[in-house]
């Protein structure tokens, strides 16, 4: 039985109180290990280690820190297969997806920020003949990085990499649902030459280790990705201590299909944007609005491809849809499918659990599911389901599509399909979404600002935005 450890001060350590949580493979329903259920004492040890390591780490030239992060990226690449297997086992995602998306992106995060820190410059403001102002950016200190279960190593490293590059020391907590690859990262970070205490990884639940981390007075900034309700709770907890906050939260993203688009491309990409990672990506477009004149052709082509998706054992090369992350989450998604029926939706595809034979007989599999006939303001179209469930809705004109697209409390991402250049820009600028894709989806450039409007979050990650977040600006004014 696999037993994970915390990583504190450069050493793998058991939790102080000796308590553990089971680790479950959602594809088989079987327990395969245990993860520390850490508490405030473990968090305190980690914060102390990070605080002690901070002066030496911040004093290293950015180039030297970057060298170690680039080395860590190389080690992730070298261990791609082990990490991908672990990610799939822990999360239920197809192994092919972990190999091509999750793990390569984790390596890119370190490679990108390892070099980005060397390009990070600050401003000067010259008052001719009077004074010279220049801005210094100091690392904020010890920071907390808290991540969810859907893209475990990908999102965990997306926070840790810029924090370390900026000269901060980190106490990180991965999701208790999918902690395996974060544990494997512990060893790799040591091999990459990170000084003891620079990166600490504490495992445990949100209310346990997570809450203790957010409350700890030694933490100066919190970078959090997860649900909107959790984000609100963290903001309430952190505000009285004036901690810097970066919150990447939930989404209910619209996908707008205009009649003049390349329909084949729109259908093909909408399959991915609806169901990739079993629909458990915060950027998935779960509300598909289609201009009425192409509604029927879009629907027919889309449904044909939905029916052809293979749900099965994540380890099979042919599998396109793996397991839902947990039984609790599967039940939540099923409750939304029930609700869709109650709200008058017509089921066009899926809607049922899938029994995968063999070793996955006890796993949590669900058919990709499509509804139509639901009002844009009904709960199914307003609340985040975070699973393989999408709705189709015809629209008659641009204004109507925009009103419906912007009608939720969320504002993370949106996708627009059109060949009309003017419309593409016009619509993009009116969408209340932090990220807009035109004729593509999940196309990422790590230099761009990433984050949501409205209840989808606070602040932006990515590129220089992330380096600014993990640093504190100081103006120095010199009289000339
Ligand atoms: P969650 O909010 O339940 O948990 C996220 C993390 O927060 C976990 O590590 C959890 O242990 C921790 N946590 C929970 N309560 C805490 C507390 N009181 N204090 C500190 N930490 C606490 O989210 P989840 O179910 O793991 O992930 C799914 C959610 O994440 C969805 O809403 C999804 O949209 C969102 N998400 C957003 C983005 C984005 O970039 N905006 C990316 C991925 C996922």
UniProtKB/TrEMBL annotation:
Active site: 248
Domain of life of the source: Bacteria
Coiled-coil regions, chain positions: none
Keywords: NAD, Oxidoreductase
Domain Aldehyde dehydrogenase as annotated: residue spans: 19-476
Record bears the keyword Manganese: no
UniProt cross-references to PANTHER family, sorted A to Z: 2-AMINOMUCONIC SEMIALDEHYDE DEHYDROGENASE
Family that this chain belongs to: Belongs to the aldehyde dehydrogenase family.
Name the record gives this protein: Aldehyde dehydrogenase
Organism: Hymenobacter sublimis
């Amino acid at each position: 039985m696999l037993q994970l450890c915390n990583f504190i001060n450069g050493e793998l350590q058991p939790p102080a109180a000796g308590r553990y949580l089971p680790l479950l493979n959602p594809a088989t329903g079987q327990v395969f290990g245990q993860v520390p259920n850490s508490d405030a004492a473990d968090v305190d040890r980690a914060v102390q280690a990070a605080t002690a390591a901070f002066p030496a780490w911040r004093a290293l030239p950015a180039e030297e820190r970057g060298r170690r992060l680039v080395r860590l990226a190389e080690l992730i690449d070298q261990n791609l297969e082990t990490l991908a297997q672990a990610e799939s086992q822990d999360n239920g995602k197809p192994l092919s997806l972990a190999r091509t998306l999750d793990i390569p992106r984790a390596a890119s995060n370190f490679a990108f920020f390892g070099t980005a820190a060397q390009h990070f410059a600050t401003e000067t403001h010259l008052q001719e003949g009077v004074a010279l102002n220049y801005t210094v950016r100091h690392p904020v200190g010890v920071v907390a990085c808290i991540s969810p279960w859907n893209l475990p190593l990908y999102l965990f490293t997306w926070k840790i990499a810029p924090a370390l590059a900026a000269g901060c020391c980190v106490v990180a907590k991965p999701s208790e649902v999918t902690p395996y690859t974060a544990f494997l990262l512990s060893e790799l970070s040591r091999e990459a030459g990170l000084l003891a205490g620079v990166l600490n990884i504490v495992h445990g639940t949100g209310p346990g280790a997570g809450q203790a981390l957010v409350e700890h007075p030694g933490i100066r900034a919190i970078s959090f990705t997860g649900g909107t309700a959790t984000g609100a709770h963290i903001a309430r907890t952190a505000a009285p201590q004036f901690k810097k906050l970066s919150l990447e939260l939930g989404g209910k993203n619209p996908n707008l299909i205009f009649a003049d688009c390349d329909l084949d491309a729109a259908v093909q990409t909408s399959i991915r944007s609806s169901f990739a990672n079993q629909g458990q990506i915060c950027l998935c477009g779960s509300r598909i609005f289609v201009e009425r004149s192409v509604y029927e052709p879009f629907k027919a082509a889309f449904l044909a491809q939905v029916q052809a998706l293979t749900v099965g054992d994540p380890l099979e090369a042919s599998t396109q849809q793996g397991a839902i992350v947990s039984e609790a989450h599967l039940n939540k998604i099923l409750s939304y499918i029930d609700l869709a029926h109650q709200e008058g939706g017509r089921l066009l595809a899926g809607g049922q659990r899938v029994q995968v034979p063999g070793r996955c007989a006890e796993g949590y599999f669900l058919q990709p599911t499509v509804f139509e006939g639901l009002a844009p303001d009904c709960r199914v179209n307003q609340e985040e389901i975070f699973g393989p469930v999408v709705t189709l809705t015809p629209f008659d004109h641009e204004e109507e599509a925009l009103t419906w697209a912007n009608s939720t409390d969320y504002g993370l991402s949106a996708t627009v399909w059109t060949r009309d250049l003017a419309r593409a820009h016009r619509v993009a600028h009116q969408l209340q979404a932090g990220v807009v894709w035109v004729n593509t989806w999940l196309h990422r450039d790590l230099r761009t600002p990433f984050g949501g409007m409205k209840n989808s979050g606070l602040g932006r990650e990515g590129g220089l935005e992330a380096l600014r977040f993990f640093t504190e600006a100081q103006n120095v004014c010199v009289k000339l």
